[in-house]
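User: I'm new to structure prediction. If I give you an amino acid sequence, what do you actually give back? Let's try with this one:
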Amino acid sequence: MNLKPIADRIIVERFAAAEKTAGGILLPDNAKDKPQKGKVLAVGPGKMLKDGTRRPLQVAVGDVVLFTAWAGNEYQDQAQSRDILVMHEEDVLAVVEG
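Assistant: Good question. You get back a string of structure tokens that encode the predicted 3D arrangement of the chain. For your 98 residues, that looks like this:
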């Protein structure tokens, strides 16, 4: 799926959910929490301000980010068998460093 985000939107690949607990118990699909962490795949050109200038985004392609639980809209990328999110940059809570 070739997507190009617009304005202040970004495309994030959500990391996979944990398959088992720290104690080794396998989790069924309905018990898995969706991770709120992922990798930025694409970024838009930035937010258009009232004065006509564009504010560039603070995240970049390749960044690992933490985001809110209900961030963005989820889509299934059938070609690459992965879940992706299209969200606004403001839904990002932090960039993971290191």
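You can read the tokens as a compact description of the fold. Here is one thing that stands out. The radius of gyration is 15 Å.
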